[in-house]
Design goal:
Helix content: 40-55%
Distance between the termini: 23 Å
Oligomer: single chain
Strand order of the largest sheet: 5-4-1-2-3-6
Order of helices and strands: EEEHEHEHHHHE
Structural class: alpha/beta
Number of strands: 6
Radius of gyration: 15 Å
Length: about 170
């Protein structure tokens, strides 16, 4: 019997996701939310529909998302969107009675890629070393987050510690 699933989210306009049981292989991919400028309501509605559908489809026991980093965006709408994605994720989890937590970007990069300041191509390379083939850095970030959550929540199945790396299914 499979362990309860973990859904990992790299929250952004193109969001990355990875979901699976710690004792199995994750599915993963990325989702482009609508480009809306200051029409944040339409952006939020699109994410709200997607996250609720994903929760219904995957039935995760834990949702973990990357803590928002808004410094240096220089754009108030971008900062509002990033914070809003976190807010909506927590609300969706609360309503569905799913445990939800955030994880710092630097610690994910350090655990997954070996460098707390790993760049996009380094995260993709780390995912490939783990046997996955993400199509973009958003999916790679989500895979890193998923692997870190597995390492912390179900260490017996950690690919980071054990090096037992398999190939996931891209969606």
């Amino acid at each position: 019997m499979a362990l309860p699933k973990i859904l990992a989210l790299d929250l952004a306009t193109r969001l990355g996701w990875a979901c699976g049981s710690p004792d199995g292989e994750p599915t993963y991919g990325s989702k482009l939310l609508p480009s809306t400028g200051s029409d944040i309501g339409r952006f939020g509605d699109a994410y709200d529909q997607w996250i609720l559908d994903m929760i219904t489809l995957e039935s995760p026991a834990l949702v973990v998302f990357e803590a928002p980093f808004v410094g240096g965006t220089g754009n108030a709408n971008t900062a509002r969107k990033l914070m809003g994605l976190c807010w909506q994720t927590e609300i969706a989890c609360y309503r569905r009675q799913i445990r939800c937590m955030e994880h710092g970007n630097t610690s994910v990069k350090k655990m997954f890629a070996g460098n707390g300041r790993a760049e996009k191509h380094e995260m993709i390379a780390a995912a490939q070393r783990h046997g996955w083939n993400p199509k973009d850095d958003h999916a790679a970030d989500a895979l890193g987050l998923w692997a870190c959550a597995v390492h912390e929540r179900a260490p017996k199945y950690s690919r980071l510690k054990l090096g037992a790396l398999g190939a996931g299914r891209a969606a």
